[in-house]
Amino acid sequence: MITGGITTLTETTFDHALTRAPTPLLVEFWAEGCGPCQALIPILEQIATDHSNQLRVATVRLDDNPVLAQRHQIMALPTLVLFTNGHETTRITTAPTKAQLLDELASALPLVPDHHE
């Protein structure tokens, strides 16, 4: 399921999404009732739109996907993980602002907006 440029992943679809394209994948691991997790959604939607040719953005609801929480050792919420070529390259365990998130991602990716605002 894709909403606002963000794909919702499950235990069934996660591995395929991780390996299906060379484009890096940013995943927000979140849970119901996590206010900071919900606050990140508009930021992630903007990043997904602005950088759609360079970055895929997805979410995983841990309430429904506990195996993924265990496999990726999610200990805090929200947790953002950037996967490049199927491997974790960056992990953020706070709720960053858009500028902070772009700074973190810039160390792993040369992000350039796809279009001018």
Which terms summarize this structure?
117 residues, alpha/beta, Glutaredoxin, 32% helix, globular
Quick structural overview:
With 117 residues, this protein is of the alpha/beta class. The chain contains 4 helices and 6 strands; from the N terminus they run E-E-H-E-H-E-H-E-E-H. Strands 1-2-4-3-5-6 form a 6-stranded mixed beta sheet.
Structure description:
With 117 residues, this protein is an alpha/beta fold. It has a single domain (2-106), classed as Glutaredoxin (3-Layer(aba) Sandwich), CATH 3.40.30.10. Helix content is 32%, strand content 26%. The protein has helices at residues 14-19, 35-50, 66-71, 98-106, and strands at 2-3, 6-9, 25-30, 56-61, 79-84, 87-92. It has a 6-stranded mixed sheet with strand order 1-2-4-3-5-6. The chain is globular and about 35 Å long. The termini are far apart. GO terms for molecular function: protein-disulfide reductase activity. One of its GO terms (cellular component) is cytosol. It comes from Lipingzhangella halophila. Belongs to the thioredoxin family. Pfam families: Thioredoxin.
What pattern of helices and strands is seen along the backbone? EEHEHEHEEH
Radius of gyration: 13 Å
Order of strands, main sheet, comes to: 1-2-4-3-5-6
The fraction of residues assigned to DSSP E strands is: 25-35%
Total helices: the number is: 4
Give the structural class.
alpha/beta
Query: What summary fits the major beta sheet?
Result: 6 strands, mixed
Helix content: 25-40%
Low-pLDDT stretches are none
Query: CATH homologous superfamily - what is it?
Result: Glutaredoxin
- Count of discrete structural domains: 1
- Quick one: overall form? globular
Keywords: Disulfide bond, Electron transport, Redox-active center, Transport
Pfam families: Thioredoxin
Disulfide bonds: 34-37
Protein name: Thioredoxin
